[in-house]
Each structure stands twice: as C-alpha cells, then as structure tokens.
Amino acid sequence: MNPHKDQGKEQSTMQTQDITRRAFHGLLAAAGVSAFLPRLGAAKALSAFVHPGILHTSADLERMRRGVLNNLAPIAQGFAKLREHPLSQIDKADRPFSSEIGRNPSVNSAAFDQDANAAYQCALIAAVTGDESYAKVAYGIVAGWSDSLHIVSGADAVLMAGLGPFKFVNAAEILRATGYLNPVQVEACRQMLRRAILPALIDFAPFANGNWDTAAIKTMMAIAVFCDDQVLFERAVLYYLYGDGDGRLDHYIYESGQCQESGRDQQHTQLGLAHMTDACEIAWHQGIDLYGALDNRLLKGFEYTAAYNLGDAVVFCPDLDRTGKYRHLVISPRGALRPIYEQVLAHYHGRQGLPAPAVERAVQMLRPEGAGPGADQTGFGTLLYAGARSEQSGVLALAPPVALRAEASKASIELRWPAVKEAHSYSVERARHDGRFRKLQTKTTERQFRDSSVEVGKQYCYRVTAHRYTLSSAPSRIARIFTGLPAPWKEMRIGNPSVPGSVNYDGSVLTLRSAGLGVLQPADEAYCIYAASPHDRLQARFLPQVASQSAVFGMMHREDASPKASCIALLLSPDAGDIERHGWRLRMLARSEERILQTIATYPLSDPIVQYGRLMRPVWFRLEIRKLNIQASFSRDGNTWILVGEAPIARHGLFALVSSSGLAEVDTEVRFDSILLTSAD
For residues 245 and 255, what is the distance between their CA atoms, to the nearest angstrom? Predict the structure, then answer.
C-alpha cells in the first residue's frame, strides 16, 4: 500500500500476486483460489511425491500380499471381506459413462459412486493377487470416466466430488504403480480431476457441517499427490490445520474429544473422523505427521466417539458450530459403529505405541471390517491396516516442511508448521528488502517460532528447513506476512464484540477475523481496517468463502470510529428465510447523525456469485465520492460495474473495510484482495 502518483491521483494499493501453480482451467482463478494458497514466486514443486502414496505405499501393498499369500489372520479374513463384496466382481455389467455427475439433484451419482467403489476394490485385489482380470475392470472404469466426465453439479457438489472421487483417484494411483495405467491415460485422468472434480472442492465447504470439509480436504490431498501438485497439497493441509470451517482439526474435534457433529448424529460424526484419518494417512506417506497435530487431537476424537457408541458415559458440552446454523444442546443417541477404526488403531497403537483402549474395543467388535455405505468411506480396514508397525529409520531424504503459517501482531510474528516425519530439528530463515534469507533460529526442536525483531508496518518472508542428524530437507515454501498494516491503514474494533478481532495481511490477501452482531445496527459490533486521511474511492474484492452464514461485511464511509457514528455503507449480508439456502444481497445503508437508519438500495446477488443460497464466487465492492454524493457499486469481474445506489455526503471521513460474524459467540474470517484506495490532489 505504498502511495504513488498515477494520472493526478494518489493511490494506496494492496497488490494481488498470482500464486496459483496452474491456471486450473480459468475457473479456479475466478473462484478466488488465492485465499489459502501459500505464497511462492517459483512454481516448481519442492520435492517429488512418493508413489504410490495416497492411502497405500508399496510397503503397504506388500504387507497385504504377504498376509493373503500366507493366510495370516486377520489380514486374510479382511481380504475375504473385500473379495466377496458385490462391487469386487469381474463380471460387473458395463454401463455408459457420462459428462456430468451431481448430487441434490442427483445426476448419475449412484452410477459414479458404484464405479468408483468397483475401480478401487478391483485395483486393490489386482495389486494384492496379481490377477489381471481385476485390473482390467478397474482400468476400464478409470479410463471411461477420465475421458467423459466434465462437471460436478448440484447443491451437494462438494460431497459428490469428495466421496466417490477419493476412491477413484486411489484406484488410478494403484493402477499406475502396478503398471496397468499408461502415461497417456494417467494424463487423461489428471485432466479430468482438474476440470471436473477440483472446481467443486477448491474452496472446501465452510458453510456446512464438518464432514463436508473433511471430505474435500482428503480428496484434494489425493488429487494433489496423483497430479504431483505441491501447491494444491499445501492448500489442503493449511485448511485442515487453520481453515475457518467446521472441518478444521480443532473446529471438528474439541479438546475433550467431543466433535462438532456429536450432537447431530453418530453416523456423520464417525464419517467426519474417517475422512480426517484418510487425510492424515496421505500426509504420513508424504513425510508429514498430521496425526500428531494438537497433541494427537484426532485420537481424542476417536476415543470419545468409540467409547460413547460402545456404551460408556462421556461429557458433552452444548456448542454452536462455525456457520452459526447448528446448535446442539445434548449429545445425539448412540449408533452402530462404522468400519473406520482399524486405520486409526494401526497408526496410534501399531506405529506409535500409544494406548487407544476404546478404539481397540471397537476394532475387536468389528473385525474383520467390511465396506461402508455407498462411497462414504474407504472400508476394509482390517485388510488395509492390520499389522502396520512403525517404519524402520534410515530414510534417504526428509520431506520439506509444508503449510508454514505466519500470524502477525504489531510486536511480533508467530510461525507454525506441522511435524516432518523423522525430523529431529528445524531451522528458520527470514528475508527482507534484498530477498536474501538469513538464519534466525538454528536447530530448534519446536515446530513454532516467534520473531520479535520486527518493525511495524513492514513485510517479512520466512522459510523453514527440517534436519535429521546430517540430513537436511529442501526449505519450505515461503510465508509472507506484514506486521500490522502498511500506512495509511489502521485497524480497530468497533463497539464491544465478545470475541476480539484481528487482521492479517500477507502482501496480497487481507484477512479480517471478527465476531459481533453486525454493522449498521443502532450500535455496531465489528472489526475493520480504515484510512483516516481524506480519499475519494475505496475498492476491494471479497474472496469466497465465509463460514458464518450470518456474516455481514463490506465497506463504509464513516464520520469517526465511534460505534454509533454516522456512516454510509455497502454491505453484503444474508437474506432472511431458510437458514440452509437464505441467499445473499448487497445493501447500501446510511445512519445519520441523529442515529436514524435508512436503507438506500438493495441488490440481490444471483448465479454465479450465489449458488444454492451460498456465496461461491468473488464479488468486487466500490464506494466512490463524486462531488456531494457517494456512489456504491459492485462488479462480478472487476471491470464491469453495476450501480447499487447513491446518497448525499456532508463531509469526508474514514474509508473502511469492515466485517462482523453476525454471531455473539463465534468469530469468522472474511478475506479481501485487490484493495485500492484513491485520493484526489
């Protein structure tokens, strides 16, 4: 936001950087994918992915082969469950492939999910037994859908893309590793995953219960591995650890082990946990330990849920989710155990030697695990995971740290990153104006670092390297962050929301975290950034999505910082009505010096910005002073502007970007970029 002269105007900008690794066929750029992608100038991957390396490595497949060949219990019994399943048969009837799949309304959804199950199960049988007839069935399915599928549709498109496609891409990974998928067909599969599946997943599902998010996370990670896309992989890991939706690790599983969906029903709770375990397994195979995040928080969720469904008493605390839609006062009734427990037992008890008594009881009750319903979860955990033990040391290389997270205050910058498998220590480097990195911390065993030697309003770049004895990894991707905000911007809390707000700016994306009951109330409760000197125009782009479905955000011109100041605002807020599909509209509002509220104009937003009542695409805001009036406009593309309304203005005041969750108890994140502040000479 450095001021500079441009055609007679003084401007302050927050520049947008292109940090996508690929164009994602244009659609993802239009969807504002920059919100969670890590910052990096170079596009190349930091290191090669392990293949096969989604749910199964070569060592995993070999363990299954030995168990089946030698009729070892319980692996042999688990294999029998797989082989007898109806979708594991080589006489499966062929069906035509389609260009579209969708859910709510259903479009070829059952056909695709059944095919995805069959492809995965037959590919796995072929890998374990060497029987090519199963590989041919799996190949036909993978090739057929890769060549035909172009779009995932419907109100539940995230689930459609997050469930069956997870098994589909695992099937493709197995077929490639075992030599049954040639390079031409591998590329066709990659292209289909990018054009059809990824657009439905790219912004996750922060508007929904957590199992939607967790399905998107694991499938995005699987696609990233199959497509060798490090940027996409980090996007999924960042959301798992730091996203704003219900599927983030500590939003889904609380410290006690209670889960976000524990008050909803036990089947969805177990499903959300199963997705998270799959994500952790993928990361583990790529050298990153998400299982251990937050002191083994995932294990706490499994232990709580298994114990409760086995009849034990648990402590339940009433809760409200991140969307503000789902409040649970009591725990839901006990339900049947889903076949999801072998995997988590294999890691925490088998690999790590940690006690997991409730999970172990669940495994004993279910063993051998069979399939789950539909394509909801992987199933067959006894075959896949029984007998897994801690891998031998002696790796030839360490994975580079991923998902480096930087959060700033005015006095310091806090860095965090997940553990790298077998890393004994980490070093932290920082760069400033000249772009050269210098060591700040050498060989720390912690996975976090606080840099207190920073200046207010400056940008800093960081990277982290993992070490094991004399081995060192490649450095992590670069994390960029400002301390506070560049001049002339300042931040402030308006009113007295119960949850404090904050702001982070990485040089491209501005993130406002705020709670509060709203903006343009009789008295405001919100968080904002503002510029105090006189200006003529403020323009910015909102990046989807937002978790709170009661959020109110946008921009305003206000007299001062007091909560009842006179102001004119252009705000995006939810419509009244059905909480699941209430829609969103732009409102131009004014509050006079006499504290009288007035709606000047409203503009309901439609497709493609709002789909199924959800904010799905970016929208540009603009407030502009022209003589004695202020005009409010919006744009779908940043080029063509639509006037929302106009109102008289008495004097220049503060231009501000403002956000409020609309909830007293829960904060939410709203992200902006392309911020432009212009003042006349």
Answer: 17
Interatomic CA distance for residues 89 and 134, integer angstroms? 8
405-477: CATH homologous superfamily? Immunoglobulins (2.60.40.10)
Question: 39 pLDDT band (50/70/90 cuts)?
Answer: very low
Query: Of 36-45, 51-60, 148-157, 246-255, which range is least confident?
Result: 36-45
Longest dimension (CA), the chain: 86
Q: How high is the mean pLDDT of the chain? A: 90
Q: What is the pLDDT of residues 269-299, one digit of tens each?
A: 999 999 999 999 999 999 999 999 999 999 9
Here the tokens at position 277 are 């375990």
**Burial letters 317-344, b for 16+ CB under 10 A, else e:** eebebbbbbbebeebbeeeebbbbbbbb
pLDDT tens, position by position, 432-481: 767 799 999 888 999 999 999 998 888 999 999 999 988 999 999 999 99
Q: Which residue has better confidence, 340 or 26?
A: 340
Judge whether 345 and 364 are in contact, CB under 8 Å. Answer: no
Handedness of CA 603, 604, 610, 616 (dihedral sign): positive
Tally of residues, the chain: 681
* CA neighbor of 381 nearest in space, from 411, 424, 337, 415: 337
CA pair distance 576, 570, nearest whole angstrom: 18
Tokens of 605: 């937003």
The CATH architecture of the domain made up of 4-20+488-680 is: Sandwich (2.60)
Residues 133, 134, 135, 137, CA torsion sign: positive
CA–CA gap between residue 382 and residue 362 (Å, rounded): 12
Q: pTM for the whole thing?
A: 0.93
Instruction: Give the span between the Cα atoms of 478 and 475, in whole angstroms.
Output: 8
Instruction: Name which of 334, 204, 311 is nearest 262 in CA terms.
Output: 334
| pLDDT band at residue 121 using 50, 70 and 90 as cut-offs | very high
Mean pLDDT of all residues in 240-250: 98
Q: Please count the helices (runs of H) and the strands (runs of E) in the chain.
A: 17, 32
Domain assignments of the chain as residue spans, ordered by start: 4-20+488-680, 232-391, 405-477
Residue 9 pLDDT? 47
- Does the pLDDT of residue 310 top 70, yes or no? yes
Q: What is the pLDDT of residue 561?
A: 74
Q: According to the model, what pLDDT value does residue 13 have? A: 61
Q: Of 247, 257, 271, nearest to 316 (Cα)?
A: 257
On the question of a common fold for 4-20+488-680 and 405-477, the answer reads: no
User: Around Cβ 534, how many Cβ atoms within 10 Å?
Assistant: 13
The two tokens of residue 99 are 């260009």
CB atoms within 10 A of CB 4: 9
3-state secondary structure 501-548: CEEEECCCCEEEEEEECECCCCCCEEEEEEECCCCCEEEEEEECCCCC
Question: CB under 8 Å to 322, separation ≥6 — which residues?
Answer: 206, 244, 245, 246, 251, 547, 548, 666, 668
**Number of CB atoms found within 10 A of residue 88's CB:** 21
Write down the H helix ranges in 85-209: 109-129, 132-148, 157-162, 164-177, 183-192, 198-201
Q: Which residues contact 97 (CB under 8 A, 6 or more apart)?
A: 144, 145, 147, 148, 149
Q: How many CB atoms lie within 10 A of CB 643?
A: 13
Only one residue has tokens 């007839």, namely 133
